[in-house]
Design goal:
This protein has helices at residues 12-23, 34-42, 44-48, 73-82, 97-100, 122-125, 134-141, 152-162, 166-169, 174-196, 202-211, 222-229, 233-245, 280-301, 346-353, 384-388, and strands spanning 2-5, 26-30, 61-65, 89-94, 113-116, 249-252, 268-271, 307-313, 319-326, 329-337, 358-363, 369-374, 377-383. The chain is α/β, with parallel strands linked by helices and 392 residues long. A 6-stranded mixed β-sheet has the order 8-9-10-11-13-12, sandwiched between helices. Strands 2-3-4-1-5 form a 5-stranded parallel β-sheet. The longest helix is centred in the middle third of the chain and has 23 residues, at 174-196. It is globular, with a radius of gyration of 22 Å.
């Protein structure tokens, strides 16, 4: 079985239906359909094995969309899966609970793989079939002779203006974007959050969500947020936790090993939809963060390598925006600047304390690609589209 989770409206159902179309045999079921809910409540095994009704040589696919809304869905699915007599592929899609229920005791442990689906990224929009593998990514990009896709600049501009979600990105309409943003937030809070938790203060959480775009790319301060909304610390911490679970935001923790006086706990927050952010600097950093997180999730979910996304900052406020870890070791530090091609003075400090000797400074300005030496280390200053096109 495959579990596919990700932000609301990122394309999970579309992808699952595409798998079904390519396979040519199987069934699609959605929990929001009353007929399916009734059938599942009466006889889950009959629902799943209905795919065998059509005689085909290929293994059927059953898609269970939003099945996590059903009570005891994992127990029932386990019972069905363990008693199947013929091969059958099962795809379960949903936003929050697939990820949430993976933790702790898991009745389906060992029976499924969990994949995280993100909205569009630049490499995906360019249909870049030559996305670089992690082992060769740094070396090839640092050669400076990799071509830039002809449409990279165009799609980068669209991503900047409309965000990564298919419904608004492909329609390119500012009015539709504003309506979509409002409806998305309302449905996230009033539907997804309500289904996931027993929280009653939904109107206050809507106020919190309206405040968070101003906090994006900054240190997450639970204390400050709870003072603004006049709630207990534990309450605000719980609300932020649930907003992570429904893929509204994500948090990046600092990397402290071998870094003198490093921050150890304070995370930075980013939104899955950067189109909500007004300040250009924070918006650009958030866009880069989303691309990097998608790449990290791809490497982890595909089994290629154990990769993490962190950031670097010490108590003297020396900061590098991102650090990719590979197998728990520093792999690639990345700094983000809107237009400043001059190296950040923080590079010298951190490259002296990290085992990796190469870094990347990403700028929004198009057409930039130059290599700068710092002692025995190198930093590549590169335009966003030139770098991001090589990530998945």
């Amino acid at each position: 079985m495959a579990f596919i989770s990700g932000p609301r409206q990122c394309g999970k159902t579309t992808l699952a239906k595409q798998f079904l179309k390519e396979r040519g045999v199987g069934r699609y079921y959605n929990w929001d359909e009353k007929e399916f809910r009734n059938a599942w409540a009466k006889h889950p095994f009959a629902v799943v094995t209905s795919a065998y009704e059509v005689k085909r040589s290929k293994t059927p696919i059953i898609i269970l969309d939003e099945i996590h809304k059903a009570k005891l869905w994992k127990r029932n699915l386990k019972g069905v899966f363990d008693t199947l007599e013929k091969p059958l592929d099962i795809i379960v899609t949903g936003s929050a609970k697939l990820n949430t229920y993976q933790r702790g005791s898991d009745s389906l442990l060992g029976r499924y793989h969990h994949f995280r689906l993100h909205p569009f990224s630049l490499g995906e929009l360019l249909n870049n079939r030559y996305t670089l593998e992690s082992n060769s990514l740094i070396d090839k990009i640092f050669t400076l002779d990799l071509p830039t896709h002809a449409d990279a600049k165009k799609w980068m501009k669209k991503l900047w203006e409309f965000g990564p979600f298919p419904e608004v990105l492909l329609r390119e309409n500012k009015n539709i974007l504003q309506l979509w943003q409002s409806e998305r937030v309302q449905r996230l809070v009033r539907e997804d959050l309500r289904d996931l938790s027993r929280i009653q203060e939904l109107s206050q959480i809507e106020m919190l969500v309206s405040m968070l775009p101003e906090k994006a790319a900054g240190i997450l301060s639970i204390t400050s947020l709870r003072e603004d909304l006049e709630v207990a610390y534990a309450t605000m911490k719980s609300w932020i936790h649930y907003l992570k679970e429904i893929y509204y935001l994500f948090e990046i923790k600092p990397y402290a090993t071998s870094i003198p006086r490093s921050l150890k706990k304070e995370g930075k927050i980013y939104l899955y939809d950067w189109s909500e952010i007004e300040k250009d600097g924070a918006k650009f950093e958030n866009l880069i963060a989303c691309h990097l997180l998608k790449y990290v999730h791809f490497l982890n979910d595909s089994g290629e390598s154990k990769t993490e996304l962190r950031y670097l900052k010490n108590k003297q406020k020396q900061e590098i925006d991102f650090l990719l870890l590979k197998n728990n070791k520093p792999w690639l530090p990345i700094e983000v600047k809107l237009s400043d091609e001059t190296l950040s003075p923080n590079w010298s400090f951190y490259l002296n304390h990290l085992s990796c000797k190469k870094g990347i400074q990403i700028v929004k300005t198009p057409g930039v690609k130059k290599l700068v030496s710092i002692g025995d280390s190198e930093v590549l200053v590169i335009s966003a589209e030139n770098f991001l096109q090589w990530l998945c």
